[in-house]
């Protein structure tokens, strides 16, 4: 049986309110008494009932985290940062895996509100729930921060990556290496791929490379199957291409698929084919050759969102915040000059 | 402002107890009234206060999950399974990242008890907290299931992988391919590596291959740096080895490190060097050649632990359970016969 505050009081031979004072550190208690209570707490393995305290204090010291899939290369690092940052501030986190499903997202947010969370962080929310006003409405009821996601004219708190600037860095790097024949590899519908494709189109136009424009859509772009899916499509594409070429892939999973296709087709990376990815997931640094990519600040994203949320809680949710993080080109071994 | 049950009652023009009946579905209510209440709930975005209900019902419908690191190839899949299985049974999960630290583990368990969780699942607990009796004591206070971890004569509930049998399958496979010169690659202290090393030693002895025994310890075995760490050590080792050889690595990160070393040294995998890993993390299926490995049932581990925990909660924690899951050899392209 779990020990109660009564058991601790009996063990330490003090009153229950003395135990409470020691636990909450809110009233002075004689050092000798304090030690006796602490020993009793230790001996009986007592933990105070945070639940009962929550009802009285009107805060639960809990935060809900929504994520499209915990089983992914990108999100675990974001969550690790959130968990750490919130823990050191006395909060526990509820983890909710929405399976990238808009209806599940709504259900989870409502369930979290029912659990009286002090705030919510939603990672990569579904575009439709941003556009239909669900998150704007929820943000009025509870402090809520969105990490990435659709944000044009949306009145929510955001921590965002500057993906457009990252895409431009990648393109500029390839151009500086002398590449003109630059192929763009993306997945099916996603706000993030659209941003990058816009940059690609603008960049090719600005540099008068329109005749080289080549956009390849590999379908499902963010699952474990993406690597093989990209490889299969790129094998066929590579048959008809004149090397040297450069390939800018919308994420590292696609970049890895391109790399594998090159291996099978006996193209040398980076001599024949230069490859640049996006995200800087750990795997891009674990293969041979290591993949040049654009760092998405996964840890910093989580940390910044947590800090923003804590500030919103502190300020009673009386402001709307937006923070855009810079991306950074990570040069490794998958690109070379012509 | 969040809507209260009072607001809903006013909106639907019914009493608060009628709203409560509709929400809890515990008393019959006229269909027409039910629809009116549901509309009001929808309109006001009302969520019932689960917290208050928890204090009355003596259960919180929350489960705590402890994990050495969420930012890892192995654990996210386990957690995904747990989250899903518990969600469909009406539970929310608290996620706790212990940073693989024994003191943090204890702190988290105490904090979870303070939050009155209905149960705890601990993934890969620290051996010292098993040996010093901490988990045995905690298991008496709250339903608790451990996934893997030290378990010799420990009176806790366990879901385990049969790692010994998996290691034997791997060794047998290499032997059947004609390999005698089999090198064992492990990391520094870990109960899991010890189990596999025992099997390796026994197997080499049984098959009179003692003169080929070669155990290489690559140090830190379970971090993102493991791949490069293993590669650096194996590059030097490969210089002095007569191919063809086979390498049995304790996990897929080490196996990948060996694969990269072979690439750099221009050894062909699998013709010169056969490599077999362990775990079947997704990355083993994403590189070229794809790595033959032993599947650890990551999803099934999480699912089984959740089901066991739910049963313990149902049965008031009146039993001690132990479940050992079979491992399975996954044959891909990194091993060949001599």
UniProtKB/TrEMBL annotation, chains A, B:
Domain HTH lacI-type: 3-57
Protein name per Swiss-Prot or TrEMBL: LacI family transcriptional regulator
PROSITE patterns linked: HTH_LACI_1, HTH_LACI_2
Amino-acid biosynthesis is among the record's keywords: no
CDD domains the UniProt entry points to: HTH_LacI, PBP1_LacI_sugar_binding-like
Presence of keyword Electron transport: no
Coiled coil: none
Pfam families linked to this entry: LacI, Peripla_BP_3
Highest taxon above the source species: Bacteria
Family annotation (SMART domains): HTH_LACI (SM00354)
Keyword terms, alphabetized: DNA-binding, Transcription, Transcription regulation
């Amino acid at each position: 049986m779990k020990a109660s505050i009564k058991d601790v009081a009996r063990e330490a031979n003090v009153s229950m309110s003395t135990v409470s004072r020691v636990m909450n550190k809110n009233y002075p208690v004689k050092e000798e008494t304090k030690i006796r209570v602490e020993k009793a707490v230790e001996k009986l393995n007592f933990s105070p009932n945070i639940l009962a305290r929550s009802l009285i204090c009107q805060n639960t010291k809990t935060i809900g985290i929504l994520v499209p899939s915990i089983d992914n290369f990108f999100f675990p690092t974001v969550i690790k940062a959130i968990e750490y940052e919130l823990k050191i501030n006395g909060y526990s986190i509820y983890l909710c895996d929405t399976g990238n499903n808009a209806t599940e997202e709504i259900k989870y947010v409502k369930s979290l509100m029912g659990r009286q969370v002090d705030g919510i962080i939603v990672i990569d929310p579904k575009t439709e729930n941003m556009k239909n006003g669900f998150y704007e409405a929820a943000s009025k009821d509870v402090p809520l921060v969105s990490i990435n996601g659709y944000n044009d004219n949306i009145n929510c708190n955001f921590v965002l990556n500057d993906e457009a600037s990252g895409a431009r860095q990648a393109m500029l790097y390839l151009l500086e290496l002398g590449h003109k024949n630059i192929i763009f590899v993306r997945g099916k519908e996603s706000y993030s791929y659209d941003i990058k494709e816009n940059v690609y189109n603008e960049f090719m136009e600005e540099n008068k490379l329109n005749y080289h424009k080549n956009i390849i859509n590999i379908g499902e772009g963010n699952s474990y199957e993406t690597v093989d899916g990209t490889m299969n499509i790129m094998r066929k594409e590579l048959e008809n291409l004149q090397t040297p070429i450069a390939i800018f892939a919308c994420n590292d999973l696609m970049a890895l698929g391109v790399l594998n296709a090159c291996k099978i087709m006996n193209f040398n990376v980076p001599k024949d084919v230069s490859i640049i990815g996006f995200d800087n997931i750990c795997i891009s640094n674990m293969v041979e050759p290591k993949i040049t990519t654009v760092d998405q600040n996964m840890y910093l994203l989580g940390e910044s969102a947590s800090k923003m949320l804590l500030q919103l809680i502190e300020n009673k949710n009386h402001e709307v915040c937006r923070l855009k993080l810079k991306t950074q080109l990570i040069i490794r071994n998958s690109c070379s000059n012509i």
